[in-house]
Amino acid sequence: MSGAAVIRSHNRYRQSANLAPLAASQRLRNAAQSHANHMAQTRQMSHQENVNGRGTVGERVTQTGFRWSAVAENVAAGQTTINQVMTTWMNSPGHRENILNGNYKRIGVGISRGADNLLYWCAVFAR
């Protein structure tokens, strides 16, 4: 299971909607992996971190040096396969909107396993 495979799955959904594929970004991947690790360590699925300067997805992406004009993230916990996490996100209007938003051009994905043995997922979208 890899971030690259998750990105391929995102792009299959986008292709079905006649949208351009998302390009992988190492900086967005770094932001996503850091947040997935944080969720796994705290055992809490959240869009926020209680760390000064890293509270929001925008702050986390900015810290990587990625210059963005729009940014969003999808998070999830407990799904054991890419198909499960993508189904969860596509069945949630806000998460689906992020995946199918034609304004986003780049993506980074992080996956981390917590001490609770759950997988924590984070996808960061930007332009």
Walk me through this protein's architecture:
The chain is an alpha+beta fold and 127 residues long. The protein has one domain: 3-Layer(aba) Sandwich (Pathogenesis-related Protein p14a), CATH 3.40.33.10. 43% of the residues lie in helices and 20% in strands. It is built from 5 helices and 4 strands, in the order αβααβααββ. Strands 1-3-4-2 form a 4-stranded mixed sheet, with helices on both faces. A hairpin with a 5-residue loop joins strand 3 and strand 4. Helix 2 crosses helix 3. It is globular, with a radius of gyration of 13 Å. The relative contact order is 0.27. The model has no long low-confidence stretch (mean pLDDT 92).
Offer a quick outline of the entry:
This protein is of the alpha+beta class and 127 residues long.
Write out the CATH superfamily name. CAP
- Globally, the shape reads globular
Main sheet: which strands, in order across?
A: 1-3-4-2
Distance between the termini: 26 Å
Number of domains: 1
The total count of strands amounts to: 4
Largest sheet, described in full?
4 strands, mixed
SSE class:
alpha+beta
> How many H/I helices?
5
Helix content: 40-55%
CATH architecture, please? 3-Layer(aba) Sandwich
Radius of gyration: 13 Å
CATH class: Alpha Beta
- Please report which band the strand proportion falls in: under 5%, 5-15%, 15-25%, 25-35%, 35-45% or over 45%: 15-25%
Pfam family, one: CAP
Organism: Rotaria socialis
InterPro entries: CAP_dom, CAP_sf
Protein name: SCP domain-containing protein
